[in-house]
Amino acid sequence: MPIFQWFTTSVPDKPRITNTEKEIESSFTLKWLPPTYDGGDNNILYQVEWGKKPITDETDRSVVENIPYTSRKIKNLEHGVEYEFRVMAKNQAGSGEPDIMFFTVKESTDKPTQDHGQSK
């Protein structure tokens, strides 16, 4: 008589975003900790979503899937805009709940150059 061993998996817990600053540069690295429970499957990948606050189903947002690391470089954000970031862990059972954090992109520090009347 064959013996079967059944393994069940569930979706992982949410990861935890570790960035603590509320104001960010227009390019920064979003970092997070892995979920405390992997759902019984240690092959975890991550999905990162971001868009102007608030993200809704109709909101234009950026999505990067199947990230094997616990960080992602985010580039080309608009100065002075508040963004919502979501990080989800996923395994073969599906995606877990997202960790959500809001950041405001610092105003540009670029100042127009002044001529001081020297050009003609």
UniProtKB/TrEMBL annotation:
It holds the Pfam family fn3. It comes from the Eukaryota. One of its GO terms (biological process) is sarcomere organization. Signal peptide: none annotated. Residues 11-112 form the Fibronectin type-III domain. Keywords: Repeat. CDD domains: FN3. One of its GO terms (cellular component) is M band. InterPro entries: FN3_dom, FN3_sf, Ig-like_fold, Striated_Muscle_Regulatory. PANTHER family: TITIN. This is Titin.
